[in-house]
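Subject: Protein entry, chain in single-letter code together with its fold tokens

Area: Proteins and the way their chains fold up in space.

Attached in line: The record itself begins immediately under this heading.
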Amino acid sequence: MIAMVFLVLLVIPVGFALYVRLAPSDPARWHIALATDAPADCTAHKQRGSATAACLSPEPAKALLARLDAIALATPRTTRLAGSAEAGRITWITRSRLWGFPDYTTAQTAAQTAAQTGGTRLDLFARLRFGGDDMGVNAARLSDWLDRLTNP
């Protein structure tokens, strides 16, 4: 009986850890077009399990997104899921240190017309895959990336 309890207590956490780390990440589900109606104040806005941000920059769209891509890929446990600076949208996966929970961050750029102030609009959306609350992790990551982007 004790062996059975031990086995169950071992198998469940290991099985869960494997599922979290090995579950496929479908780009069609996570690499999505973003809404562009958020205020472009370069501030991460926390929501339950996610965060959004938007900025305006005088930098050309491809160059801005390429710099953000380098910042994202320098973040521990972060890989690119889909997209490119040339395409105007990139989605990254950042995994938590202990369990490897995946968080997905999508960034997209759009050129602004002269009437809209010119330059480039950058929109970001970071969200978790498992659970209901990320305890501010996604907002903190967006804040860090935006700080590094605007203060090189």
